[in-house]
Amino acid sequence: VQLLESGGGLVQPGGSLRLSCAASETIFKINYMAWYRQPLGKQREFVAVIENGATYYADAVKGRFAISKDNVRNTLDLQMSSLEPDDTAVYYCRSIQQGVVSWGQGTQVTVSS
User: Fold this and answer.
1) Contact at 8 Å (CB) between 22 and 53?
2) Residue 104 and residue 92 in contact, taking contact as beta carbons nearer than 8 Å
3) What pLDDT shows up at residue 89?
4) Are 14 and 28 in contact (CB under 8 A)?
5) Average pLDDT over residues 15-24
6) How far apart are CA 58 and CA 48, in angstroms?
7) Among 10, 59, 69, 82, which residue's CB has the most CB atoms within a 10 Å radius?
8) CB atoms within 10 A of CB 67
9) DSSP labels for 6-64?
């Protein structure tokens, strides 16, 4: 499956942004879909996942971010609220289907006043 992220941009601290990851095929049967992020000069890190219908979040974003999967639009979304400068990063979509790992190309999110 090919993944394409969108929705990134510049937002002020405390603001909100919604990211979307469009898949090239149906995602109904994909049991693992996640968001990761990579701040400049740092390693890529886990943000949130939907796995077998359950959602999990990194401690740093818990209560501020919400991950959702739309099986009609074939998208994985990430609603981000109360954004902080430390949320600045390139955000990537990831899926695992029958052992095959796919990544999108990423979308830049910058939180700055």
Assistant:
1) no
2) yes
3) 98
4) no
5) 97
6) 6
7) 69
8) 20
9) E--EEE-TT--EEEEEEESS--TT--EEEEEEE-TTS--EEEEEEETTEEEE-TTTTTT
Whether the Cβ atoms of residue 10 and residue 53 lie closer than 8 Å to each other = no
Identity of the amino acid at 91: Y
Buried b (16+ CB within 10 A) or exposed e, 75-99: bbbbebeebeeebbbbbbbbbbbee
Name the one residue in this structure whose structure tokens are 């394409």: 4
Encoded amino acid at 15, one letter: G
Res 29: pLDDT = 87
- Pull the structure tokens for residue 54: 């359950």
Enter the tokens of residue 105.
Answer: 């190309």
